[in-house]
């Protein structure tokens, strides 16, 4: 009997039932029931290789999933145990510059929600703008500037399905303050204080790295580093009430001098990822243990409204201020 063709990302129309299809297809094929998810950034996917009792699914074998096209993003969803905690890892993410709609780059985040995940650790490789940052530093993201979003490319554009969350989402405190504090404590215990930073991540669409003038502009706006991902995933995660910890690995300095001979290079980004992999893996592995220990239970939504026409966007969530 011929097998039915796999439903591809081109067939995906964002219906709630399609996300359910994806989640069900995964839950049928693994006995793992993760409560935490990790999105691995460029060159940082080695973490997924550490999972015990892994069940790994190529993105090509998951209904409706986009596929990874970027070197350094293997393209697998891996379920398993990390430090005794059941997690699911994206070994490679989807980027807007790969040609996917912004809302399709974030499909896995809603699938995580349906799988029972309550917290997402989002990692990325980023270029440092803050002159105090060094290559190899690890930056906890405290906020973002979402350039594509400000220009009209927000993953929540279009009709809102209230089953995910409210029409209007507060992003105040999107990068959970308690989780950042926990991360600082864990980093101290692991002797990583010297390389731990905190700051603002700016997302640009890519695939071009920014010009010198753009870099200077973003620095003057208060940005500490620049990348090409993360913000859409965090928006969708907060919309459906997932708790978020964001971590950037500073893989290069963003050039801010017109006369500089320096230039960014993706291969160099991957090399720094490899060099810092061990420290990042220790940090994330310990954090996962602590989060599972201290934060079990669902995160509350950032904001809630009675219905989509309700203009009052009151806060009642853990992250609301
Ligand atoms: O997936 P992330 O955000 O870690 O990847 C960054 C941004 C580009 O995809 C790439 C540039 O080197 O690294
Ligand atoms: N936009 C941007 N993304 C990056 N990802 C890794 N390094 C960089 C960088 O310098 N700029």
Automatic annotation (TrEMBL):
InterPro entries: Nucleoside_phosphorylase_d, Nucleoside_phosphorylase_sf, Pur_Nuc_Pase_Ino/Guo-sp, Purine_phosphorylase, Purine_phosphorylase-2_CS. Phosphate binds at residues 42, 73, 93-95, 125, 229. It comes from Hypsibius exemplaris (Freshwater tardigrade). CDD domains: PNP-EcPNPII_like. It comes from the Eukaryota. One of its GO terms (molecular function) is guanosine phosphorylase activity. A purine D-ribonucleoside binds at residues 210, 252. One of its GO terms (cellular component) is cytoplasm. Its EC number is 2.4.2.1. This is Purine nucleoside phosphorylase.
């Amino acid at each position: 009997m011929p097998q039915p063709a796999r439903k591809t990302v081109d067939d995906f129309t964002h219906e709630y039932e399609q996300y359910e299809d994806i989640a069900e297809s995964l839950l049928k094929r693994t006995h793992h029931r993760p409560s935490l998810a990790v999105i691995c950034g460029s060159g940082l996917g080695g973490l997924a290789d550490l999972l015990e009792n892994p069940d790994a699914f190529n993105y090509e074998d998951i209904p409706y999933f986009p596929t990874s096209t970027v070197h350094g993003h293997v393209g697998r969803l891996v379920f398993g145990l990390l430090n005794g905690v059941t997690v699911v890892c994206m070994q490679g993410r989807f980027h807007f510059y790969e040609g996917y709609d912004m809302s399709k780059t974030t499909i896995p985040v809603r699938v995580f929600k349906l799988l029972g995940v309550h917290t997402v650790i989002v990692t990325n490789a980023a270029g440092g703008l803050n002159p105090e940052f060094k290559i190899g530093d690890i930056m906890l993201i405290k906020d973002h500037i979402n350039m594509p979003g400000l220009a009209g490319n927000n993953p929540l554009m279009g009709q809102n399905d209230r089953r995910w969350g409210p029409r209007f989402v507060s992003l105040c405190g999107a990068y959970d303050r308690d989780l950042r504090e926990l991360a600082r404590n864990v980093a101290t215990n692991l002797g990583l204080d010297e390389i731990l930073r905190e700051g603002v991540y700016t997302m640009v669409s890519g695939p071009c790295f920014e010009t010198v003038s753009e870099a200077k502009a973003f620095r003057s706006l208060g940005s500490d580093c620049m990348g090409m991902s993360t913000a859409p995933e965090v928006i969708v995660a907060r919309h459906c009430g997932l708790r978020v910890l964001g971590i950037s690995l500073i893989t290069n300095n963003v050039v801010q001098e017109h006369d500089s001979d320096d230039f960014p290079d993706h291969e160099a980004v991957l090399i720094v990822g490899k060099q810092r992999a061990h420290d990042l893996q220790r940090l994330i592995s310990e954090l996962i243990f602590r989060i599972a220990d201290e934060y079990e239970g669902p995160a509350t939504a950032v904001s809630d409204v009675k219905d989509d026409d309700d203009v009052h966007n009151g806060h009642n969530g853990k992250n609301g201020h």
